[in-house]
Amino acid sequence: MSRTVFCEYLQKEAEGLDFQLYPGELGERIFQHISKQAWAEWQKKQTMLINEKHLNMMSEDDRKFLEQNMVAFLFEHKDVEIEGYTPPES
After folding, report:
1. Which residues of the chain form beta strands (DSSP E)?
2. Is the distance from CB of 17 to CB of 30 less than 8 angstroms?
3. Each residue of 23-74: pLDDT tens digit?
4. Which of 5, 20, 65, 78 fits a disulfide with 72 by CB distance 3.0 to 4.6 angstroms?
5. Residue 84 lies in a domain
6. Is the model's pLDDT at 87 over the cut of 70?
């Protein structure tokens, strides 16, 4: 049985995540307010950011940078700036 959430990213009801994927209060907020679809969109952006900026997940600064971008993307409707990446024309 899938759960439905009002996704803050999509601004509509959508299928919610199966379990909390991120720790702490932020993880709880994502679980309650972000859909599977929005999380998948973020995962693509996150991968591009890690690769583009050569982020090291062992570095606290790099993890903070990624988290700030995640919050901006999921909750503030800000697209992730990736240098040298031009989105395909739709």
Report:
1. 4-7, 12-15
2. yes
3. 999 999 999 999 999 999 999 999 999 999 999 999 999 999 999 999 999 9
4. 78
5. no
6. no
Residues in the chain: 90
Crossing angle of the two packed helices 60-75 and 24-33, in degrees rounded to 10: 30
Instruction: Give the per-residue pLDDT at 42.
Output: 97
20 Rama sector, left if φ>0, alpha if ψ -120 to 50, beta otherwise: beta
CATH number at 28 reads 1.10.3880.10
Give the pair of three-digit tokens for residue 2: 């899938």
Q: Which residues share a beta bridge with 6?
A: 13
User: CB burial class (10 A; 0-12, 13-18, 19+) of residue 35?
Assistant: buried
* Number of domains comprising the chain: 1
Q: Which two tokens stand for residue 57?
A: 């997940």
